[in-house]
Design goal:
The protein has 195 residues and is α/β, with parallel strands linked by helices. It has seven helices and eight strands. It is 34% helix and 18% strand. A six-stranded parallel beta sheet has the order 2-1-3-4-7-8, sandwiched between helices.
Length: 195
């Protein structure tokens, strides 16, 4: 049996929440292994600067954790992984979300909670401030689907060149067959030299 890292931190995407199906799959797996207490899926603030501050505090408290970031959460996970030398699984990650979301400035609604809020130009600037230039590819496991209707997976394939990559034909932005690949996620998240 694999020896999973001391903790998994799931980082949700834009207008998502810890109720995301991918977060639930990971939580259920750890719970079945008697490790429910080692799963963290914070509800991120709408402000990227505030989200970064929250994630930084969580990472400092759990430096051996492995990150799992989806969409915008993949962008945040990259920032954290490079800042704290952590490993990260990126699921259909946003590569330049400040470009994509510049067109989303205005009223937003969370998919899971129904909460409404204003996404502002300042939030776009806060995202840009978290941009990571060069990455250490050994830190990452990239999982993308070519059928992603929101993001062009080729941008992620290029950004994370040299990293372990799983490119699946078809699919969607939600990576709806994530459960079928959870073993690969957990294998990447295992403690090196164990399991």
């Amino acid at each position: 049996m694999l020896t999973i890292a001391p903790a998994l931190i799931y980082i949700h995407g834009f207008n998502s929440s810890p109720a995301s199906s991918k977060a639930q799959v990971l939580h259920e797996w750890l719970a079945a292994a008697g490790r429910a207490q080692d799963f963290f899926a914070p509800a991120l603030p709408h402000s990227p600067a505030a989200a970064a501050k929250m994630l930084e505090a969580i990472a400092r408290a759990r430096p051996q954790a492995v990150l799992v970031g989806s969409s915008l959460g993949g962008f945040y996970a990259t920032w954290l992984a490079e800042r704290f030398a952590m490993r990260a699984v990126l699921v259909n990650p946003a590569v330049r979300p400040y470009e994509l979301l510049a067109g989303q400035v205005g009223r937003q609604k969370n998919f899971h909670t129904g909460e409404e809020y204003d996404f502002t130009a300042q939030h776009v600037d806060e995202l840009r401030a978290l941009e990571v230039g060069a990455i250490d590819p050994v830190r990452y496991f990239l999982m993308v689907e070519t059928g992603d209707e929101v993001l062009d997976c080729r941008h992620a394939v290029e950004k994370y060149r040299g990293a372990r990559q799983l490119v699946i034909e078809g699919g969607d932005h939600g990576f709806s067959d994530f459960a079928a690949h959870v073993d690969a996620v957990l294998e990447f998240a295992s403690v090196p030299g164990q399991g």
